[in-house]
Specification:
heterodimer; B: 353 residues; seven-stranded parallel beta sheet; 42% helix
Chain lengths: 181, 353
């Protein structure tokens, strides 16, 4: 077979075995433009798991026990250090979350003002620049969900159906029951 | 023409790919009779005799500063802004969106690195990329590929592996365990290969994880879906890595972002067929010598693996094309591209000479 024919052959084989699937659970990598507020708050609290402190070497059990015993002895000190760190982490995460909420409200207000301005300009038959038209379209999209989508960096999560592959061997189309090319 | 070239890299370490490449470049500069020193911001004590701190660099106006930019490098932007002669070779920097969930610190480094890249490349007399893909992404028109030296890997071994059976085959992937490399998709593709076509197929991945937690997640998925047919190795020597290439039957790269992808050239060197996604530099490096598809159905990847493992003629043709691609990335061609880029810097700035 020539390399150029291999893909068609692979698709045929995939179609012939489409009913044979694999378990869908476990790690699935997802892109995220920025961490969500929930993730930030979750990460802000430092809570090391003592069970993760272990030796992976052969016959490492005594090393594991020694490490864990030392940590127990120092538990009071570590708790004190962590509480200081957690205090600042949580406050920063909370402030970030509140600032984001505030920015969202301000943007909504600006978008509404922009649409009112547009209505006034239309009433006066004023000419609008291309930049204004685009900003209006984005504002309308944010307020109503109709029209042009968000600009770069405005969307925090990549939608699940944009994931490049399925976790169990099915495509997004197969999962949805749709057949798109 | 004798030129003084000072190299700058972000971090210098004994096993770091950029460091190794900088040392090879210095060997070339020595062969050409060029002078200069190598500098880095962070220096591992084990290479401290070869690199001086970046803050100690005070180039004369006629000297060329050659920076390999692969991560946020504090101080580099200021240095280039004040220096008239510079070549910046941008290695690709992964978009941070791949790391926010799994390694926020790396995400932040990628974010800063990509943001600063625009400034650094803009300040360079000659900006360059390690692949056409990277060059275009960061606004450069010069390409200086990775210096690939096949002799480092030893003999390729026999073209056909005698232990390949109709029910089996070893799939290999070499590269850091990072989210954008999509080890999760690779494991699932091999699980489908086993479930649908080849019940004895195996997967071996080689590489250091971006962090231990992510490595453990990948290992858990591998053990869950492939059981004993899954192997993860790290910290291999050059000889051990060469052995893994010699014993594998196909290389599968599911990565969704690659600036260059050296393992593809390594696979070509060892006569391994390559299957994967045509992301970024992969399609450019592999060209028609690999079986690439962006089909979202992992069953198609499993199908491609089955096709290539079952067809000796197809493997022979891919091997022939792979060796042709090695010719394109011949180390002498890369050395010539580097020399030409440095000389261009000098030609473009005659007044300061």
């Amino acid at each position: 077979m020539r390399p150029e024919d291999a893909l068609a052959a692979a698709r045929e084989r995939a179609a012939a075995h489409a009913d044979t699937l694999i378990p869908a659970d476990g790690l699935v990598v997802r892109r995220s433009a920025q961490p969500s507020d929930d993730e930030l708050l979750q990460w802000a609290v430092v809570e090391p798991d003592l069970r993760e402190v272990r030796s992976t070497r052969r016959l490492g059990a005594p090393v594991t026990r020694t490490k864990q015993a030392l940590l127990r002895l120092l538990a009071q000190y570590h708790a004190q250090v962590l509480s200081v760190q957690n205090r600042i982490n949580v406050h920063l995460a909370l402030r970030s979350s509140l600032a984001r909420d505030e920015a969202r409200e301000l943007r909504k207000e600006v978008d509404e003002l922009r649409l009112r301005l547009r209505a006034a300009e239309d009433a006066l038959s004023l000419t609008r620049g291309r930049g204004d038209e685009q900003a209006d379209a984005r504002a309308a999209w944010r307020l109503t969900g109709v029209g042009d989508g968000p600009g770069e960096g405005e969307r925090a999560e990549v939608p699940a159906d944009a994931l490049p592959d399925a976790v169990d061997g099915r495509t997004a189309e197969q999962r949805d029951g749709k057949h798109r090319r | 023409m004798t030129i003084t070239v000072h190299q700058v890299i972000g971090g210098a370490g004994p096993f770091d790919a950029i460091t190794v490449q900088a040392l090879r470049y210095r060997r070339l500069f020595d062969q050409w009779g060029w002078r200069g020193h190598d500098h880095a911001v962070h220096i591992d004590p084990r290479v401290s005799e070869r690199f001086a701190p970046l803050r100690a660099l005070a180039p004369a106006p006629t000297d060329v500063v050659f920076a390999q930019y692969s991560a946020y490098t504090p101080g580099l932007g200021e240095l280039l802004a004040d220096h008239p002669r510079s070549l910046v070779l941008c290695q690709n920097i992964t978009p941070p969106e791949w790391f926010w969930t799994h390694d926020p610190l790396t995400a932040m480094q990628c974010y800063l690195g990509r943001r600063e890249a625009t400034r650094v490349m803009g300040a360079a007399t000659v900006p360059a990329g390690a692949s056409r893909y990277t060059a275009e992404e960061f606004g450069a028109d010069t390409v200086i590929p990775i210096l690939f030296e096949p002799e480092r890997y030893g003999a390729p071994g026999p073209d056909e592996r005698s232990d390949l059976t109709p029910r089996g085959g070893e799939v290999l992937f070499v590269g850091r365990l990072c989210p954008h490399k999509r080890h999760d998709a690779l494991i699932r593709a091999v699980a489908l290969l086993r479930a649908r076509h080849r019940p004895d197929a195996r997967l071996r991945i080689v590489g250091e994880p971006v962090n231990e937690g992510y490595g453990a997640e990948v290992a858990r998925l591998g053990e869950q879906l492939l059981g004993g047919a899954f192997a993860w190795e790290r910290g291999l020597s050059q000889e051990q890595l060469a052995d893994r290439y010699r014993s594998a039957h196909v290389l599968c790269c599911m990565s969704e972002h690659e600036g260059f992808c050296v393992p593809i050239l390594e696979a070509f060197h060892f006569g391994l067929p390559v299957v994967g996604r045509p992301s970024g530099g992969v399609a450019e490096v592999a060209a028609d010598a690999a079986l690439l598809t962006d089909d979202p159905d992992l069953g198609v990847i499993a199908g491609l693996l089955d096709v290539v493992l079952g067809d000796p003629e197809l493997r022979a043709e891919l091997r022939r094309r792979g060796r042709e691609r090695l010719g394109v990335y011949d180390e002498h061609a890369t050395a010539a591209a580097l020399r030409s880029a440095v000389e261009r810097v000098v030609e473009l700035t005659p007044s300061s000479a």
